[in-house]
Design a protein that fits this description.
Blueprint: E1 2-3, E2 6-7, E3 9-14, E4 24-32, H1 41-53, E5 59-64, H2 69-77, E6 81-92, E7 95-105
Parallel strand pairs: 4-5
Antiparallel strand pairs: 1-2, 3-4, 5-7, 6-7
């Protein structure tokens, strides 16, 4: 999303191509420039991604740092629910970091 001529926020949606997994996408790369934080930009980015995703997948998953309370609040406000925790999800400078796993069904489950 743009704020005037400048990119202010972004997020990506990765959709597997395999037949058994293409019903769910992964929200990745969520970022809002510091100057746009607290303005509603992050929610606008998530809402735009979910609007697009609703025509492409049945649910959206994401991983989030368990210490990032603002991000967790954002995702919960958008309807995401935590379903697990991945230990040692990242290794940065020799230190392991966990991730919370969250999901948002966009369409009712059914066979």
């Amino acid at each position: 999303m743009r704020d005037g001529d400048k990119l202010a926020g972004m997020a990506g949606l990765v959709v597997p191509t395999g037949g058994k997994m293409k019903h769910k996408g992964m929200l990745i790369g969520m970022y809002v420039v510091p100057a746009a934080r607290g303005t509603g930009m992050a929610r606008a980015v998530v809402d735009a991604l979910l609007a697009y995703a609703s025509g492409v997948v049945e649910e959206v998953h994401l991983r989030v740092d368990p210490d990032s309370e603002p991000a967790i609040r954002l995702y919960r406000a958008a309807g995401f629910e935590q379903y697990g925790r991945e230990p040692r999800a990242l290794k940065i400078d020799g230190k392991y970091h966990d991730a919370l796993l969250m999901t948002l069904p966009l369409k009712p489950s059914g066979n």
